[in-house]
Amino acid sequence: MIILYHISQILQEGKSFLINNKNNGQHRVLLGFGLAFLVIFAVWVGLVASQSSFIAGYDRAIYGAIRNSNQAEYRLASLWTQVGDTIVITTISIALVLILAIFKKYGYAIFTSLVMICANGCNSIIKHVVKRQRPRIAASLNATGFSFPSGHSVGSMSLAIVLITLICLLVKQKPAKTILIALCVCFTLSIGFTRMYLHVHWPSDVTGGWLEGLTFGLLGAWILLWSEERKAAKERLWQ
């Protein structure tokens, strides 16, 4: 949550350039964050693929702290986790792209499309390369396919970063902006938690999914902010 807060602050600083024509180089900070998370994610993939003892201990420790014996909580988690399903995330993403295109925000629409397509496409590739098996799960949950990384976590985190970026660039009222960003953060964290709570993913699957979503989201936001700054600089030259 702290990381996402700092990212929103960086994006807000980037927006100030577009308004005040002051080159503060915030897109380079986003690039630094994106590359850092890319390295962390690559290391995480290597640890999971090699069945590291660190990952095994990590999963045991978090699973040991999560109890899902409460039936009401279990049913609630089973319902909420469906919001992070690939079909739902894809539908929301397509609707968002169409809305942005209707309002002629073509750069933002392309940004949204690229982040969501690349993040989920990479996730599918990694799943079939690592081929990690899921934990024992209840048949009623109907969770199929390989376990790592968690597709729900990748999709929800990627969408959250996209939405946070758009909120920082498009929403003017600070209270509304703060509330919307907080909702985005709670959304991705809660979806990831349900995957662990329901035991349909190992905790390291969820962490890997968040790392992957952060990586693609930040690199996409960097490209968007960089292109917006270049566009603004060119417009100043013609004034």
Describe the structure.
- The protein is about 80% helix and about 0% strand.
- The chain has about 240 residues and is mainly α.
- It has one domain (about 1-15, about 25-50, about 70-230).
- This is Phosphatase PAP2 family protein.
What value does the Rg take, in angstroms? 19 Å
Give the overall average pLDDT.
83
Order of helices and strands: HHHHHHHHH
Helix count equals 9
As for the number of domains, it is 1
Strand content: under 5%
What topology does this entry show?
Layout: H1 2-20, H2 26-49, H3 53-65, H4 71-80, H5 86-102, H6 106-130, H7 151-170, H8 174-197, H9 203-237
Keywords: Membrane, Transmembrane, Transmembrane helix
Domain Phosphatidic acid phosphatase type 2/haloperoxidase: 106-221
Transmembrane segments: 29-49, 86-103, 110-130, 150-171, 178-198, 210-227
Summarize this structure briefly.
The chain has 239 residues and is mainly alpha-helical. The protein has helices at residues 2-20, 26-49, 53-65, 71-80, 86-102, 106-130, 151-170, 174-197, 203-237.
